[in-house]
Amino acid sequence: EVQFVESGGGLVQTGGSLRLSCSVSGLTFERYSIGWYRQAPGKEREGVSCINNNENTTYYTSSAKGRFTISSDNAKSPVYLQMNSLKPEDTAVYYCAVDPAGMPDCSGVHYYPGWNLWGQGTQVTVSS
Question: Over the stretch 67-77, which tens digit does the pLDDT of each residue have?
Fold first, then answer.
């Protein structure tokens, strides 16, 4: 069973920084990507960033590019999302996700409905 431990959310002022951490255990997939999605109140969940250590790729949506950095020391360590220059529009619940298909943008997580591939979420609030 895949298990997640997320941390690092909180309240920060505009222009501030936060670092999210996601530790995943119980993975049995041969290849996978790990990334972050977020969901703001009244909006759909959207991708933010993704990393695939097997393929040595990272991915960022346009809203994250240049401000956020995803990293991990190796395939089994926590995955971090360093978020700098935060804006009020970054306010959302951030979810760690595992993509068993290993897609570079972690979009494969949607191919497995009913699988436990999502973390519990951590709240990020950016005040203006």
Answer: 999 998 776 67
